[in-house]
Amino acid sequence: MDEYGLTSIDRLKHISSAVKSILEYCEDKSEKAFLADSLVQSAVLYQFLVIGEAIRFVDPDMLRKYPYPWHLPKSFRNYIAHEYFGINLRRVYATIAEILPEFKILVDRMIEQEQ
Length: 115
Description:
It is a single chain. With 115 residues, this protein is mostly helical. The protein contains seven helices and no strands. The protein is globular and about 40 Å long.
C-alpha cells in the first residue's frame, strides 16, 4: 500500500480506467477531428497524466513480470506536464490508435492475474 492507502492493483485500475476514457473520447474521431477539438485534447492529455503518475506507484516487481517499456508512459507524463507548450498532438493521436488498445489489454490482464 502506498501513502494514500492504495495498492498496485488500485493503481492498475486507475490506469485501465484512464485508458478506457481516452479510447471513448477518441472513438470514431479522425485525426483531423481530434486536432480540431481542444476540449478532447485536454481531456486526453489529463488521462495520460493519470496513467503516467499511477504507473509510478505500481510495485516494480509486479511490472517486471510483464514485458513492456514501463518507462515510456512515465516519460510521456513528464513530457506532457513539463513540455505542455510543445506537445505533438499528431503523435498523441497515433499513440491512442496504435498503442493504447493493446496496452489496455495488458493492464487488464495484470489486474486479473495479480488480484
